[in-house]
Amino acid sequence: MKHIVEKWDEKLHEGVLWKFYFDCLKIGVLDIETTGLNPARNKFVLGCLYDVTEGEIHQVLAESRVEEPLALAEYMELIDRVDVVVTYNGRKFDMPFIDRRRQATMNALNYLKHEENGGMKMPEGGTAVYDLDLYQVLDKHSALRRILPNLKQKTVEEYMGLWETRADEISGAESVELYNHYEATADTEAEKKILLHNNDDVRQLTKLTKAITKSDFHKAMYSLGFPVKAGGLLLHVNRIAFERDGLAFSGEQLKSSIDYMGFEFRDRPVSSRFIRAGESGRRGLFELKVPLIRQEGYIIADTEAAGISPEAFADYPDSGSGFLVLGDTEGIRYRETNHFIKSFIESFMEEAI
Question: What pTM was computed for the model?
Answer without folding.
Answer: 0.93
